Amino acid sequence: MTTLNPRIPAKLFAGTGLMLAAGSALADYTWNFPKPVTPIARDTLNIHNEFMVIITALFVVVFAIMLYSMAKHRKSTGAEPARFSGPAGALQWFWVLVPFGILLFIDFVLMGIPAFHAVIEMEDTRTKADMVLKVTGLQWKWKYEYPDSGIQFISTLSTPREQIEGKEAKGEHYLLEVDNEVVLPVGKKVRILLTSTDVIHTWWVPQFGVKRDAIPGFLRETWVRIEEPGVYRGQCAELCGKDHGFMPVVVRAVPEAEYAEWVDKKKAEMATAAAGSDKTWTKDELMAAGKAAYEKNCAACHQPEGQGLPPAFPALAGSKIVNGPLLSPEGKLIPDSHVDRVLNGKTGTAMQAFKATLSDADLAAIITYERNAFGNTRGDMIQPAQIKALR
Amino acid sequence: MNTATHTLDHHDGHGQHPTGLLRWLTTTNHKDIGTMYLTFSLLMFFVGGAMILAVRAELFQPGLQLMKPEFFNQLIGVHALVMIFAALMPAATGFANWMIPLMIGAPDMALPRLNNWGFWLLPPAAMLLTMPFVLALFGIGDGAVATGWTLYAPLSVQGGIGVDFAIFSIHILGISSIMGSINIIATILNMRAPGMTLMKMPLFCWGWLVTAVLLIITLPVLAGGVTMLLTDRHFDTHFFNAAGGGDPILFQHLFWFFGHPEVYILLLPVWGLMPHVLSTFTRKPIYGHTAQVWSFIAIGVLGLIVWAHHFLTAGLPVPALLYFMYSTMSISLPLAVLFFCWIATMWRGAMSFETPMLFAVGFIVLFGIAGLTGLVLADVAADAQYHHSYFVVAHFHYALFAGGIMGVMTGVYYWLPKWTGHMYSEKLGKLHFWLTVISFNLTFMPQFFLGLAGMPRRIPDYALQFAEFNAISTVGAFVLGLSQLIFAYNVWRCVKGGEKASDKVWEGTSGLEWELSSPPPHHSWDIQPVIKSH
């Protein structure tokens, strides 16, 4: 703490400049919020920028005074300590009260007024909403429903396990890519309803300026109006268990005509899937579909080879439940049986009621697969039509 | 001085103190208990630090390298619980035990046996918290609590035995803290030297008085909340389960009604200590003693009514959002009074920069960053971006490491010569300061930018655009962690020996505690000093 080297500030500036230059050289390297694409995100960015200027100014002014004092009022320079311990006289009181007047103004006018308007806008989810998107958080994926068109699907991480474990080079959108993207039309006000089936999750897309908790048993809402076509990526933001870091949100915003095409395509896919629950499947078909569906929906906890992660996530290989009877002789559900667990989950654990999220065909395929894989040899199978009857 | 010698003679007459381990187990002496609190705190500081270094090592690069996500989640939650409940709070209680009786001219704490019990509850509580790690090694349970320190239901309802261990640990820690608080309030209200009115009482005691009151108000709420969690887990109550008429957000209200005041519980003792240090090393009286007292009280009161700003994204109604935003912003006013008083105390003094003063100045600047970023976090719209992101992680580490831990270090360097009778190594102290400040900023400054760029907190792996800042942060964290070994060594060296400290220790000190010998006799202020009115 000797006197300041006059060259230090210059070096600091040069250093900062270098860092900024390096920053612009790397495309994704940001020092601020990513580019806003909704009115709320733009508002939020403006507010944030304004606030950063204010607090930086406060910081610089206050600590410049302190640094001046530290340089000037030193024992080593022969300073004699003053004896005052509070404001004395009207003039000193004035100078004591001025900073508080300024702070009051900053808090409740400079910051408070724009903040007020932003809150009102952010919470206005209903005025002139063009459509509704329902988002459901599940451990560890998102379910999206479009009530207007009846479309619904599950969106899960598509980054291969090998990339996460470092056995393969990581792709460009590592951990921010999914199998089924949410598609939304550009320029429409989308009212987003959120809930969860298990624990609290948080739906967050930074470029939308929107972050809202998905709470089991309750509906929460927010809204977006995306102004530019593009793919926008975000993540779950509330710790929701083991794979919290692996449930991204990917939204593709497209022009309205393209959106209509996508809706038609999705509807056709849904019709094919619905037909699947009425036809009779062969065991080989169920096993093949079961393997794929198991790896997508079950393997995160029960592991690809069914060995589980006990005690939290039990093994399916050799499991008493999996190797128990399928249905009662009358074709009814047996409580706490394999089928019951898969359909209705187990309360108080991470095992969810998969009937809420998977199709009849997927459920039948997964159950059949689990009973005949990992060394389990029950030999029996269940048809999608039976699942449909059990719902 | 005469008083002190007299005290020593008087008690040597009884002459029957147990020695060795029994002395520490059975002691009712405020100085012994203070020493035990501080030793425990230092130990747990390294335990909590080791946990987070493992986390930072995992986060050095994208990908999962060292641990599974489940274990990662255990480490981050237990790190926070250890640092808050077993490192920072005991350190502040250790200060209170050592210094409050000396500062107010009391022979000991008002309730010495309670004091002993309060300390000895801590080791079992810390063991409960960390034991599930060990049990998991033997195949029992699936490790420690993995929900983060916030224990949000329903994730915590779903969790393994680690959650139960954490709940019981929190119960015990809470009992310990409430006993400590009762003791401090009783001591301060009843045992001040004649003539020391409340308004003349040293600010450190005032900071602690407000902390103790906050603890007594808020800890029972936390205890109730985690007990409801326990019954939800095991006895089929549905406090936090919507299917049974409960509400998960109720837990967040209960938790943060404790959790927000907890921030001030950790910081008020430090804010109380700062003016003493600044006044000593500027050789000038404290500026605005009364204003600081009222600011402590105002912050305590405001701290009790702003809790929901910790979950502004949970979907609160608009009036609640506006209320919690503006009430949170208003905390900046009493806090600004403190900053004003600190700087005004320095103004036109005759400053010298021994280690405690360096830490005090470092504290003011870095805690300033915590306060200013806290002000912007209060804004509901901007909070939607900051919340649950690394921006928040950076913010509260500026508050609790630069504010809390560096504040505690200020106190240790300031009072260590008084406690041990020896001077610590100034050279090592300064080295420790500079390494700490530089590596602290290297660790946490990049985290602000990570948060702005959109990195959520509590994730074991991250997208590629976050890689550079995470690597810098990890390097900083390891330097920061290793630098603290210098601190431990310096303290150890000072306890063992070194240059003799004078009674006054520092040139600019004032107050009763500096009138006693260094180290003070085993029993001090047997005859109460009298404060003359002036």
Automatic annotation (TrEMBL), chain B:
It catalyses: 4 Fe(II)-[cytochrome c] + O2 + 8 H(+)(in) = 4 Fe(III)-[cytochrome c] + 2 H2O + 4 H(+)(out). Pathway: Energy metabolism; oxidative phosphorylation. It is a multi-pass membrane protein. One of its GO terms (cellular component) is respiratory chain complex IV. Pfam families: COX1. PROSITE patterns: COX1, COX1_CUB. It is found in: Cell membrane; Membrane. InterPro entries: Cyt_c_oxase-like_su1_dom (IPR023616), Cyt_c_oxase-like_su1_sf (IPR036927), Cyt_C_Oxase_1 (IPR000883), Cyt_c_Oxase_su1_BS (IPR023615), Cyt_c_oxase_su1_dom (IPR033944), Cyt_c_oxidase_su1_bac (IPR014241). GO terms for biological process: electron transport coupled proton transport; oxidative phosphorylation; respiratory electron transport chain. The keyword Iron applies. The keyword Oxidoreductase applies. One of its GO terms (molecular function) is metal ion binding. The chain crosses the membrane at residues 33-55, 75-98, 119-141, 161-191, 203-230, 293-312, 324-345, 357-378, 398-416, 428-449, 469-492. Residues 24-532 form the Cytochrome oxidase subunit I profile domain. Its EC number is 7.1.1.9. Keywords: Cell membrane, Copper, Electron transport, Heme, Iron, Membrane, Metal-binding, Oxidoreductase, Respiratory chain, Translocase, Transmembrane, Transmembrane helix, Transport. Belongs to the heme-copper respiratory oxidase family. Cytochrome c oxidase is the component of the respiratory chain that catalyzes the reduction of oxygen to water. Subunits 1-3 form the functional core of the enzyme complex. CO I is the catalytic subunit of the enzyme. Electrons originating in cytochrome c are transferred via the copper A center of subunit 2 and heme A of subunit 1 to the bimetallic center formed by heme A3 and copper B. This is Cytochrome c oxidase subunit 1. It comes from Zoogloea dura. The lineage of its organism: Bacteria, Pseudomonadati, Pseudomonadota, Betaproteobacteria, Rhodocyclales.
